[in-house]
What does this fold into?
Amino acid sequence: MPELPAAARPSAVPRRRALLLGAAAGAAPGLAPGTARSASRRAARSVDGRRVAVIGAGVGGLTVAHELAERGFAVAVYERRAVPGGKARSLYVPHTGTGGRRDLPGEHGHRGVFGFYHNLPDTLRRIPLPGGQSVHSRLTPVRWVELARVTGRPDLPVPVDRWVPSSLSDVNLLISSLAGLLQEGVRLPPWEALFFAKQAVMLLTSCTERRFGQWEYVRWWDFIRADGMSEDYQKFLGGGVQLLQALRAPVASTRTCGQGMESILYDLAGRGSDTGGPFDRVFDAPTSEAWLDPWAAHLRALGVRFAFGRSVERLDLRGGRIASATARTVYGTTERIDADWFVVALPADRAVRLWNPALRSADPRLAAMDGLRHTWCSGIQYYLREQAPGIRGHVVHVDSPWKLASIAQSRVWSAPFARTWGDGRVRESLSVVISEWETPGILYGKPARRCTRAEVAREVWAQMKAHLADHAPLDDALLETWYLDEAITEDGSGGLRDDDPFLMNTAGSWDLRPEATTAVPNLFLAADHVRTYSNIDFASMETANEAGRRAAGAILAAAGGTGGGGGAEVRTFRGYEAPEFAAARALDRQRWRQGLRHVLDIG
Ligand SMILES: Cc1cc2nc3c(=O)[nH]c(=O)nc-3n(C[C@H](O)[C@H](O)[C@H](O)COP(=O)(O)OP(=O)(O)OC[C@H]3O[C@@H](n4cnc5c(N)ncnc54)[C@H](O)[C@@H]3O)c2cc1C
It folds into this structure.
């Protein structure tokens, strides 16, 4: 095994971050140290009753800022990092760009803006680009998902254009088409394929009450009876193929996985898709460059102020309302944040740190969030001197113990790689997401959590090579360097820690999730753990976006429509429901009310 050359470790203040913090001292991108207070004062002078402090600049926080700034509110966003975007942001390898090129970019693997998203695409359409287009125009389809197997097992290239029959009116036809696909394509034993297809149709025809009252509490793994099935059934249908990170089959609720499956199926049947195109779409450049940086620039143009390098540590409840918040700066000083409305747009594991005893007793739903569970899910980039040969799009490494999924970015990014990023020698960023951190790997026999960063890099490379050996062998000589997400750091005792874990939509977790509104009248929540109702609700950018819309709508209503921008209602966009199943769902609703099982719930 060759020694993999490691990219420069993140310095204390990476260059991109330093640039943003530095620029803050001037006019634009962020607030210089010590200016958050003056921003608040400026806001206080001009917009009494309409000052909003958004804590967290992820998709949820930026969405609230967008909706409210358009309606005349004075919004300030406080973010612990130096850049916006949270989990969606691109990762840059510090000090790797030379000769006017940008630092080497990376992503958390595949960053899909799927065709069944409707709220997020609306936001993308409202972020203008020079030349009259919008950020939405930078989405590009990924037409193939390659289900790669280790040597000896046939790979399965899957086109992600429509291949589900568009006629859904015949349930028998749907069951036999799905079963046929699983039998022919994935080569599952016929009865396993048929059983899964029957369960899938049961979900599609379940009424909403049953989804929330029954399927929410059943693990997907149990619902599809994965325990007694073949290894391939477990891998393909029980979570080995991790297309959507939130859908963790062994622990996720059937309602959640069913929602994902249903959305993908309808999309593949050409139903209810955002643009009518393939369901799998990514940006044609690093996410920060294509979307998040233009978004932040647009928000600034709308008057939003950003205070980067501010980690909010405390919310002060006085007289039943949030009176102020306190942030710690990167320089170790504290700052007081005054506002009329506070939006906590933080991941659940961070938000609960702000729930002090007074807040917990004011709103027990906030305390319930302690029960939400998180997992590790992070990206690693391999920078290659040539394009990865034979990789067309999104690759799922089906047999990898660490549940790897990768994408060759040069195939989807429109700019010429070597001329745009790095030192001119790199032509490919192979971006990989590691979804499983508890299972031993093939090289060291250790789970990812117990490895060093360098061991993770070697292990992931080995697992990918084992999958691509048949048709697209990875050559060690192509590898220039690698870069593992900076949130993964060594813990000093031979293992790793993760500073940015990811929410799991475990069975029953809906009960623990908060609404966008709280019992404290000027406190709102906007992140991917917040309950959403119009489209999907599993942890994703679409959910964070809808949560942001809900928080903004609630503030607008609570403020009495006082936004100077006209105060138009904040819209949310519904997901697709097949009319052909309406009658079956109505029948199921009757059965649910009578305490009966679904008609297909026959074992
Ligand atoms: C590896 C991976 C791949 C994914 N792929 C996809 C995908 O393909 N498609 C998709 O739709 N979704 C995907 N997701 C999920 C998606 O990225 C998230 O659900 C979404 O970005 C969450 O947005 P958020 O605003 O809720 O939270 P976050 O993105 O976590 O944003 C919260 C922000 O708050 C900041 N913050 C934290 N604590 C503080 C504090 N105390 N004070 C101030 N600021 C603070 C953080 O730095 C961060 O910027 C993926 C997630 C992961 C981990």
User: Anything to note?
Assistant: The chain has 18 helices and 23 strands. The mean pLDDT is 88. The CA atoms of residues 221 and 250 lie 5 Å apart. The domain at 31-80+309-370+513-558 is CATH 3.50.50.60 (FAD/NAD(P)-binding domain).
